[in-house]
Amino acid sequence: MFKNVDKTYRSIVPRTWGMDEKAAFEAWMETGSLVRAAKRMESQGFYNTRLKRPFSGFAIRHAACRYIAANHEDAKPVLLKAWKDAGVDISDKEWERFIVETATEYLSSSKPRFMTWLEANAWALRYDYIYAEKFGLTPKYHPEV
Known about the structure:
Layout: H1 21-31, H2 34-43, H3 57-70, H4 72-85, H5 92-106, H6 111-120, H7 128-135
């Protein structure tokens, strides 16, 4: 695996040491803003323990999306209510696709972690066309047109 020995690039994956993913999700949903969520988390004593500074909105979004992917059943009523309040209704298939896309995006920095998630969520196999190319797999299913 390539290592950034000479520090020529910065990772775009935010550093989230000390982050409680559920707290990040709840702060974002309750405040409705990543900036306000960051301030709330700081006031609750959550901060990056390695850097000794508050989490960025980007880091909170990343942690919250990992929570959504890993705990989609718990997150579903909260997100559906937020979307409904914004005038958006989605079907069960759209929800499933959203979860697979979120898992693909936010759990994919580790293929074993994503594959473990996929094993625990067998229903997601029918959406393999979303993640197959990213992980070098051959899709068996195709999106409905």
